Amino acid sequence: QLQASGGGLVQPGGSLRLSCATSGINLSIYPVGWSRQAPGKEREFAATITWKGGGTYYADSVKGRFTITRDNAKGTVYLEMNNLKPEDTASYYCVVGKRYGTGPQLRGGAADYWGKGTLVTVSS
Known about the structure:
With 124 residues, this protein is mostly beta strands. Helices cover 4% and strands 47% of the residues. It is globular and about 40 Å long.
């Protein structure tokens, strides 16, 4: 029900846009996030967005470089990533929270759907 795309190999300083297309979900009533896991590291949420769309959260490591947006009509969530760094290398997962849930709840693990990861590699 979640299909992530847009990953790939990019040089440091480059940009990528990840997309998460959903099906069978009324995305407008769910908070959504992008979680990532680098080799040998714990999974963390890079960014989340509330179901109303007005509230966003970014990990300190990506603030000012990543932007999460959503298009409820298309059932799609995006992660625009700019000025990518080698430490951004990870598998990125689209995560859908609980209906009418909050960002903190989502980041605490309250999720209904997890997508398969898309790999982002930042290397020269």
